[in-house]
Amino acid sequence: MKLPELKIGEKVATVPIVQGGMAIRLSTARLAASVANEGGVGLIAASGLPFDELRKEIRLARKLSNGKGMIGINAMVAAREFKGLITTAAQEKVDLIVAGAGFSRDMFSVGKEYGVPIVPIVSYAKLAKIAERLGASAIVVEGTEAGGHLGTQRSIKDILPEILSVVKIPVIAAGGAITGSDVADLLHMGASGVQMGSRFAASEESNGAPQLKEFYLKMTKDDVIQIDSPVGFKGRAVLSPFSKAALEGHPPKPLTCDSCLKHCSRSFCIIKALTRAQQGDLETGLVFTGANMWKIKEILPVHEIFRRLKEELSKSY
């Protein structure tokens, strides 16, 4: 059976797969372009990037892409520079802006001003309805199985039907999908597309250090934990010396503060902790993960990931 296409605004992805925007500098131009070249939606993680660097990443992704899929950004609403990041991306005419870790009305005015589709990440029906009313082109519905910052402790399979019943815009399901059969299950439930983070974090094109990717492959189900993020949300992470300290309530406090977040508990610096992990420091770095990343046993190129996903989908969808 032919896969459904995912339409967001005026753009169409021929494969209804959205690559999660994973910060800091894990999802950059190379990964986003590779996903778009397979017909999916590739996202550059904008949080933590200076505006000039974000512009360069967007332009590089365009240069590397073949025009088949979509290229957008993901940004944390909790970031102090959120409006500047999404305005920069909108000026560069990205295909979509995905925003999570909070909710902001600013993003809809920016989207309207520049003609860029806005796709909020939500975890409950009331906010989905508000997003649609404010002009969202689609929404990402994220369940507790997702990696990074969590807006809920409920499963995507519990939340998805509720949200599908109250909105008419495309709904992209996120949380826990690793295989083509996982994707098929969510599409069968009525999702227009599926967002996958962990599978693409563990790809050759992901911008993580080799040590980080090796760390992914060694983790077990018991290593998946939740910590309190200074952003104000729970965060799903891999058990490591740093996350263990955070779990126990005594993570190393920052010596200096860059005021990168609108509101921060200052229990630790999440931007620096994520950056250290991305660079391969697994002692003092924070490694975010989806609930099912432990099932991944190979680092694969994006083309092979898509080949396997489509093969599995053809048997399940």
Automatic annotation (TrEMBL):
It comes from the Bacteria. One of its GO terms (molecular function) is dioxygenase activity. InterPro entries: Aldolase_TIM, NMO. It holds the Pfam family NMO. Keywords: Dioxygenase, Flavoprotein, FMN, Oxidoreductase. Nitronate monooxygenase that uses molecular oxygen to catalyze the oxidative denitrification of alkyl nitronates. Acts on propionate 3-nitronate (P3N), the presumed physiological substrate. Probably functions in the detoxification of P3N, a metabolic poison produced by plants and fungi as a defense mechanism. This is Probable nitronate monooxygenase. It comes from Acidaminococcus intestini (strain RyC-MR95). The lineage of its organism: Bacteria, Bacillati, Bacillota, Negativicutes, Acidaminococcales.
